[in-house]
Amino acid sequence: TDVKELELLFKRGQQRCSAKFRVQNLMHTMAVAIDISTTNTAAFTIKPSSPAVIPPLSLAQFSIFTNNPSEDRPPLAFPQDKLFIRSSMLPTGKAEEEQLHCIFSQPGAHVYKDATLPISFTGEDTARAIIFGHHRLHHHDHGDDGRVSPLSSSSSPSSSSSFLLAKAVSVCTPSQKADLLRSAAQFGESDLVSALIDAGADVNCRDNHDLSPLYLAVLSGDAGSVRVLLSAGAAVDLSVGRFLHSAESLRRLDVLSAFVDSDLFDVNGAMDSLGRTPLHLSAVHGNVDALRLCISWGGDVDRVDLNGWTPLHCAAAEGHLGAVDFLLAVCNTKYAVTRDGKTAHMLAMESGHHHLMDALCLADKLHRAAGQDGNVHGVKEYVAQGASVDSRDQNGWTPLHRAAFKGRADVVQFLLDQGAQLDPLDNAGYTPLDCAAEAGHTHVAKLLICRGARRNSNDDNNQALKGSTCPVGFFSSVDRSSSLDE
């Protein structure tokens, strides 16, 4: 034959698609009989019909046509349908049709299998049918007409679709490939996006609305397609940046992760017109999962926007208790003020979010009570009301730090019984045991040691653990007692 594969160009709306091929008899003196068949007789017709006779050193031209044409999709199959050509020498040079059928109906050494030609469908409309069919199959959608995708019988839909798509786009123009890439990205089909990129589609091509494949992939919510495009060099444009600062993006954390993992997206450098980072946006919408993810990427929880707002300010102003609680545990901006001089507590109260009172103020009361003589009942009351025993002040002190520094053994005992962390570090790296040692409260130090506490100080002169006195000025660089008004 003059071809190794039959390529049928499919166009929507045409009656049939076809391809021509020629078979040559290389025998110098003898005619040959040939028989042509396909693996799918219901889908294809061969003309002229076979068996046929080809004289010596002659060519015969044949055509393959699709049967029962569909206006919107070709008869795709995977593995591909094939065309078989068999031959048999014909010493007499001619034979009746019945004799020819008899020759090929009886297997034996007289019949040669000369060629096996894969049947492929090509063209933009074929590629589009593959993309739509793959999308329907993944979403268990048979389409408006109720028909199953032609790829639904495939054992590996992704690999088969990618293979057939590569065949289909082999005759497409760069413009057609670009359009197909946008379609695959819009449907969130990462395997097909990858196949089209391998076929030469431009990852930064834009449609008439100036939308890029990356933006369409982001809108689809498919992280796989986003990763494929980013790894292929897709540019992060303004439209993508706007999406990453939208509420919708917070519902697709896997898509956000794809950008950060690509090293093309700086979680602290990506700011909107107000100077807000994705961390601010997560706080505005009260999305704790997004907050946690942004921080794991290195997001600066203390970053301020153009108005001096931290993520905590944003969460408090919107009344998101879960986000406020989470941020209080990881940030040092509880008392930070905006450019207007307002704390997170003030913003919450101005907006009527009184349910944040305990989170933003109750812990302060617990800290004060923890350092006051004879006020263990106040400590118990605030804890009963929901104050966190591990809450932090602006210096990173917990109530246990304050009670230890003030020598409040009864409060220390109560806080530990309530599950307070034994060795939390403040902003300077000191534990409650360090505080007790600094203040000379040997009885509190011994109590903490009995509970398993350890010092984090590098001070070699650890006399607090040996006698009744402790070195004075251990925290000479930081005034620990000024954390809160006593």
From TrEMBL:
One Pfam family recorded for the sequence: Ank_2
Domain of life: Eukaryota
Keywords: ANK repeat, Repeat
UniProt cross-references to InterPro entries, sorted A to Z: Ankyrin_rpt, Ankyrin_rpt-contain_sf, Dendritic_Spine_Reg/Scaffold, MSP_dom, PapD-like_sf
Domain MSP: start-end pairs: 1-122
ANK repeats: 176-208, 209-241, 274-306, 307-328, 395-427, 428-460
Protein name: MSP domain-containing protein
Source organism (scientific name): Nymphaea colorata
